[in-house]
Amino acid sequence: MADSIRRRARSEREEIAPRGRRSDATADDGVIFRKGFASLTELALSGVQVTACAIDVASGRVLFSVDDHLSVPTASIGKVLLLIEVAARISARDGASASGGSGSPSARTARAAPGAEALSILNRTAQDSVGDSGLWQHLQVPALPVADLAALIGATSDNLATNVLLRRIGLDAVRSRAESLGLRRTLLLDIVRDVRGPDDAPQLSVGSARELAGLFRQLARGEVVDETTSRLVSGWLGLGADLSMVAGAFGLDPLAHTGEDHGLSLFNKTGTDAGVRSEAGVVTGPRAGVSYAVTMRFNDTGLPARLSVLDAMRTLGTDFLEYVY
Question: What Cα–Cα distance (Å) separates residue 287 from each residue in 207, 264, 283?
Answer without folding.
Answer: 29, 10, 11
